[in-house]
Every structure is written in structure tokens, then in C-alpha cells.
Task: structure prediction
Amino acid sequence: MEARFDPFGARSSAFGESGGCRPEALARLERLSGLGAWCHDPKGGQVRASAQVYEVLGLSPDSDLDLETVLARFVSPKARQLLLDRLAALSAGGAQAAKARPASLPLSFDATIATPAGQLRRVRLRAEVDGGASGTGCVIGTLRDVTHENRDRQRLWQAANIDDLTGLANQRWFQRRLQLALNEGTALALVLLDLDGFAQMSDQLGAVQSDAVLREIAERLSGLVGDEGMVARIAGEEFVLMRAGPDTDDLAQALADGAFAALEEPFSIAASAGFALHAAAGMATSPTDAKDSEGLMRCLRQALAEVKQMGPLTHAAFLRGPTRARFEARREAIAFVLAAAKEGRVRAYYQPKVSFATGQVVAHEALARIIGRDGKVSGPEQWGAALDDVDCARHVDAAVLQAVLDDLERDAGRLHRVGVNFSEHSLRCPVFADRLLQEIATRGLVPDLIEVEVIETVLVGERMQPLSQGFARLRAAGIRIALDDFGTGFASLSHLRDLPIDRIKLDKSFVLGLGADARNAPILRAIIELAHALGLETVAEGVETEEAVAFLRALNCGEGQGYHFGMAQPFEALPSPNV
Result:
């Protein structure tokens, strides 16, 4: 065997003589860094290496080293041939190429090796052609043990990409795999699975056993997608399955059916035997439903939401046809409203309320309108679906209130009592009443100029209790509460007795239908008489004809609102008090 390779050459003695680093210290630095040096003469096939190379390879210091033996012994056939080819190409470049780029490292190669003792190590080999004056074409390089570095990198990758409970991909890794497949134009079938009843199971089983059930579910779902597919846990009880292949609709349905069947099998956790665990599944395919990841996830979630509205969670659905159109329209409406709110294009338009007794305007209702970028005015008929969204509803509520308060400040007699509609999303805010009263006080306005209009569903059942205190404060300050669209929701006679309201607004469907259906008249008569008996004021909506005015006046209805008295207008268009 060749003499042990001194990677520091003649410099070693110089360091020793000057009192600096000696060869023994440099060898110690090699061990600390896990880095060994070697050189290879392609003509003779000889390999000379420092002690650390032997250590990394797990060989005794007296072992013979030649390139073919080392590669055959430690490196897989595929990797061995690749490395030999690259070393040959490196040597063929010769010393001239190396002199031209002396600082370059043309070859960097990572491989997993097995030492004679059976240990698996990850090593990194780097090499370049010796650019010395001799121009021999020898290859010099380093060999480093990067096992721990590689292991740490794997741990970091796993922490970032793997769900630590189930071992499945997490949302981040799923999104990357999905995007990669879409970039390659792969046809995909996806299923978003939501477990039903798992929360109840978890409460009964406890954390340890419910986690075990989740792991068993993950294992079962993984068996449905094959090696090329993916199952990811993207939320606590949500899993997504993805597979590529032709006939994506059939493939998605097969994945969903397989998932349902897997969940019906008993779990190994004995305590779970008494629980029924079902699922709802939304399905989507690419490119049929969407060609981008955001669009696919939106389709999955919308389809899942549609399934949940249908009833028992034992089936899956695509979101297509009229249903898809409805969801897309809602999405577009939300985007429209949010943009208008951000750009300050939400306005308050005022429709008058007229006293049947005097014929005078006694109040207004503030109605939300949006001024489009093209100047066109639109109302909830065009974008009302967006108001189911929490952010949209709160933005519209806030914008209309601010507009009303601004207009009351510059009133000059144009406005009377103003009814302002508030969504349940705004009313649920614990400090709603305090903020409203503070806004009014800050502007120096009188609270009884504002009337809060709410729909029946806000005040019914358990929803009423958290609101009672806030409504009591508003009423004590002089703000009235009106129950809007009465007669078409869920209110009962007991609600008229118990709810904290001052006025009821009769739904316009009864007034508009006076001539078309004779049953509407006795309904209106009964409601108005009952309201009077309970001390509640009444406002009739949808008044469009003189006949309706006469009928309601005869019933002693308090106020009327509708096109007969005027359409909603911006503040500037309201008649001046001096006219």
C-alpha cells in the first residue's frame, strides 16, 4: 500500500518549525470536521488518503485503497457508474482546464455507504484536477462524513412537511406536491374528507386513544392512493386524498367510496366500538374543475359544504352545474363587496317612512348601496349573497353606519329618525352597544335619531341571551329596536311578548299580495291588532298603491314604507326642509 497521504505536504514541517499548527494538530482538525483528503492517479489507479478517509470508510489504517475496490465495496452500482463517469470526465479535462479555473470544484457527489461494520453513513465527495506545475491530471479531493448533517436536515424537513401525529403529509407538503403535479399538466383526482362525530369520540376516549384512532385512519387512507398518490392531514379532522390518472371523475369517486368503506371497519381501539364515525367528502378534478391549486381547493371546500347541507354525511359530491354557479356567484359577490368597502364605495341611500295619520315623512331607513367603478349603483339584489360572509357583512354595516352619522351631522332637517340594519355578525360583537353609543356621542348626536333594525332570527332562541344586555343599554339611551320582515321568519306570538323590541315591520310580501291573495288582508289585520294590544308600533313595507295606503290607514297602521312614498335616494337628493 502507498504511504499514508499527508494532505498538507511540505507545509506541515513549516508549521511545526514556526511553532504553529503541527501535523498532529491538523489531523485532529480533520477528525473534528469529519473531513479527509485524498488523491487519485487515473493512470496508475492509485489512491492515497489521509487517516480521516479511512475513518469515514470504516477501514483499518493498513487497508489497501484503489478506486475500483472502494467504489465496488461501498457504493451502489448505479451511483458507482455515475461517479466513475464523472471522474473520468474530470480527468479528461486535464490540468489546463484546472489551471484556468483553479478555485472551482467541478465534482460534488453525495452517496450513502455501508461500512464493513454495517453502519450506514452519508458521505460527500468533492474533487477537482490538480492544477500544479506538473500537470499530471491527478484528481485531488475531500471526503466528508455528513451523516449527522443529513440527519438534521431530514429532521427539519420532516418537521416542516410531515404531520407529527399521523405521519402523513401536512398541508404545506401537499400544496407543493399539488402545484408540482399541476405544473406538469397531470390529470388529478382529489377528495377532501371531513370526519363527522370524531369530536364526540375524542371527548369520550381521551387524547391518547383518539390519537391512536387518527393514526389508524391515516394508515387506512394511505392504502387507497398507492405509491404515486398522496394522503395529507390538512386540519384536525380533515384529510385530502390525491391520485393521478385517466377518468378522474371515476377515480375521485373510487377514492371517496374507499375512504367511506375504510371508516366503517371497526378500529383496533376497543373503546371506540360504540361510536359511529362517518365522513363527508367533497371531490374535485383537474383540469375539469380547475387548473390551479387555489381553484381546486376552493371547489373541494365548496363541494364539501354542499354535501354537509344535504343531510347525513355518508356521500360525496362534485360541485358542478347550478350549484357550482351559485357558489361562484357568491365568491364574486364577496370580492365585489370587499373591494367596494376597501375603496370607500359603500353608500347609505334613504327611503322615507310616512305616517298614515298625517301623510308626513317621520323617519327613513338607510339602505346599503355600492357605487361601481363605472358609476352604476347596485343594491343587495346584486350582491346580497356576500352578506353571509362575516367580513363582508361587518364592512357593509360599518360603512352604512358611518355614512348615516356623517349625514345626520350635516342634516339641516333632511333626515328624521333613521333605521339602520345590522347583521348578526355585527350584533354578536360583545362591545357592539358600547361602540354604537360612543360613535353617536362623539359626534354630539341624540341617540333617539337612530333605530336598530334586526331580523327575527337574531333574536330567537339561545341567540337572544347574549344580546339582551346590549339591547337594554341601547333602549335605555333612547335607541329603538325594530323587528324587520315580521311574519316570514321564525317569530312566534311569545316572541312578540318577550323580545326587547319597540316596532315591528310587516313584511312586504303581505302588502304587495293584498290584491293577489285574499288571505293576506286578515293576516295583516291580526298582526296590527296584536301589536297594538302589546304596545308595539307598526311599519308596513312594500306600500306601492293608494289602495294599500287606504287599507293600512283603516287598520290604524302607524307608518308605511315603499315606492308609493318614494324610492331610496342619496342624502344630497333628499328634499330640503325649506322646500
About this structure: The mean pLDDT is 84. DSSP finds 21 helices and 19 strands in the chain. The first helix runs from residue 11 to 17.
